[in-house]
Amino acid sequence: MTLRIRDPDAFQKVASGVQSALLSVAIVVGGVWTIYVFKAKLDIDSAEAQLRVSRAQLQATEAQIEKSQRELLELTNLELSIAASTVRPRRSSMWQISGTIRIRNLGTKVAIIELPPKTLQVLHGADVVAGLKQVRGLGLQTRMAPG
Length: 147
What we know:
This protein has about 150 residues and is α+β, with helices and mostly antiparallel strands.
């Protein structure tokens, strides 16, 4: 099959038109591709910047957690022990209770313990005072001061 060109000028005009059309299509496709790549690059840059911010926030949060954990470990840790015994003096018909309250600070911070006057009162069994609780087995009553 042989293609014969009868009118070279007409062929040149048609070929020039086809070339212009293909060139226009190529320019449009190249422009769309450039916009797509540019937008993708902006999205990548934005995502990387957001990732850097998120990492910085994570590091700050982790540092705050570590600081809180250190402070929690440094808090006052009090150990309380109570030792009590009953004693009957030689010339008395009444029993007495002798007690020791020991408070030991096992933590690293200073503990301030303020006990208001009459925080703990030991009363005779016959006394009736509002808010008293019967201590089991001893026949004594105690009252804890409010606050």
